[in-house]
């Protein structure tokens, strides 16, 4: 069939017009890595990211098995699907790494973060800060005549929303733990 007889909108298969199937869209992924709890392991994992120019949006690390000396590293990163696959493959090749799980693709997961937020203000701003804290279920963990320190836990976007509302009310400092995440279900 000649090119003149192809219907409008039909795709002609040819070795010359093949398009790559890879996506250039940046995706956010939460990756959990189970590693030996020994000196230098975290530096090797972080070195993999920095050496290749990958960004880490969030990083949490803690020992999860005292008898087995295992730690869990939870990393939130952004990249194209190809970059995410490359990160997972390279993490799996690091010797003290036992498991690599991409929680974003393995199923629904629960993500939580803790933040403490200092707000300085008086009068109506102080009252409004307390009202918003109640709505967001944030706790007051320290109070002076001019300031509050709130503790809030939840999904990262909940903490972002709370911080955004507190900025005009006198937010002066924020500390965040980073994301802790687990797959839902069995």
UniProtKB/TrEMBL annotation:
EC number: 2.2.1.6
InterPro entries to which the protein is assigned, alphabetical: Acetalactate_synth_ssu, Acetolactate_synth/TF_NikR_C, Acetolactate_synth_ssu_C, ACT-like_dom_sf, ACT_dom, AHAS_ACT, AHAS_small-like_ACT
Pathway listed: Amino-acid biosynthesis; L-valine biosynthesis; L-valine from pyruvate: step 1/4; Amino-acid biosynthesis; L-isoleucine biosynthesis; L-isoleucine from 2-oxobutanoate: step 1/4
Domain called ACT: residue spans: 30-105
Catalytic activity annotation: 2 pyruvate + H(+) = (2S)-2-acetolactate + CO2
Annotated GO MF terms: acetolactate synthase activity; acetolactate synthase regulator activity
CC per GO annotation: cytosol
Keyword Transferase: yes
CDD domains: ACT_AHAS (cd04878)
GO biological process: isoleucine biosynthetic process; L-valine biosynthetic process
Family to which the UniProt record says this protein belongs: Belongs to the acetolactate synthase small subunit family.
Subunit structure: Dimer of large and small chains.
Entries under NCBIfam families matching the protein: acolac_sm, PRK11895.1
Known role: Catalyzes the conversion of 2 pyruvate molecules into acetolactate in the first common step of the biosynthetic pathway of the branched-amino acids such as leucine, isoleucine, and valine.
Protein name: Acetolactate synthase small subunit
Gene: ilvH
């Amino acid at each position: 069939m000649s090119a003149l007889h192809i219907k409008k909108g039909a795709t002609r298969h040819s070795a010359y017009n093949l398009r790559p199937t890879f996506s250039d869209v940046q995706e956010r992924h939460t990756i959990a890595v189970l590693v030996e709890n020994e000196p230098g392991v975290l530096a090797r994992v972080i070195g993999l990211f920095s050496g290749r120019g990958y960004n880490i949006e969030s990083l949490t690390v803690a020992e999860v098995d005292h008898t087995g000396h295992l730690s869990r590293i939870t990393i939130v990163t952004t990249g194209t699907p190809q970059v995410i696959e490359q990160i997972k493959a390279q993490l799996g090749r690091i010797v003290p790494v036992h498991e690599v799980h991409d929680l974003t693709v393995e199923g629904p997961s629960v993500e939580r973060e803790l933040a403490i937020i200092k707000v300085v203000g008086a009068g109506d701003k102080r009252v409004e800060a307390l009202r918003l804290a109640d709505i967001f279920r944030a706790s007051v963990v320290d109070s002076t005549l001019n300031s509050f320190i709130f503790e809030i836990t939840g999904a990262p976007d909940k903490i972002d929303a709370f911080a955004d509302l507190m900025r005009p009310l006198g937010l002066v400092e924020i500390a965040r733990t980073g994301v802790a995440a687990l797959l839902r279900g069995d």
